[in-house]
Design a protein that fits this description.
Layout lengths: L18 E8 L5 H17 L3 E19 L2 E14 L2 H13 L3 E9 L7 H19 L1
Antiparallel strand pairs: 1-3, 1-4, 2-3
Helix pairs in contact: 1-2
Keywords: Ribonucleoprotein, Ribosomal protein
Organism: Haematococcus lacustris (Green alga)
GO molecular function, one term: structural constituent of ribosome
């Protein structure tokens, strides 16, 4: 999965897609490969619908302000990760459904943000060049 720039967010209709931040709290005992697989699945859902993943952050296991309770379970810690994506509402609905149905997810939220990225121009230019290279390889 490749991170993309704001220029990548132009849909087939020529309009920019909204920028969303997804925050997820997962079970702290979840093995690292399963955590990576969960994040990868969310990213794939976004890219399959023509969206792009612009940033992924993992904050590791963090103590929570209050316990999260589930039937026969209680969690004082959670593995927290954040993903910033540019995608349409259909893909976002699929991502939220995936997170809702995943037993390893304790809580999740999506927030719509201003569509302008606050990345340095040099980083955006590098991302755009990488996108152009990968696009030409896919076509050729």
């Amino acid at each position: 999965m490749r991170l993309a720039s704001h220029e990548d967010s132009i849909s087939a209709l020529g309009a920019p897609m909204p920028l969303y931040e997804l925050m997820c709290l997962a079970k702290p005992a979840l093995a690292r490969p399963l955590m990576v697989e969960m994040m990868k699945r969310v990213g794939e859902l976004v890219t399959e619908k023509g969206g792009v993943v612009t940033d992924i952050k993992s904050f590791g296991d963090q103590h929570l302000a209050y316990d999260i309770r589930r039937p026969y379970e209680r969690y004082a810690k959670a593995h927290i990760w954040q993903m910033t994506v540019m995608t349409g509402p259909d893909a976002l609905r699929e991502v939220l459904t995936e997170l809702r149905n995943n037993d390893n997810v304790l809580r999740y939220i999506s927030i719509k943000r201003d569509s302008q990225l606050s990345l340095p121009q040099s980083v955006l230019q590098k991302m755009l060049e990488e996108h152009d290279q990968s696009s030409s390889q896919m076509r050729g």
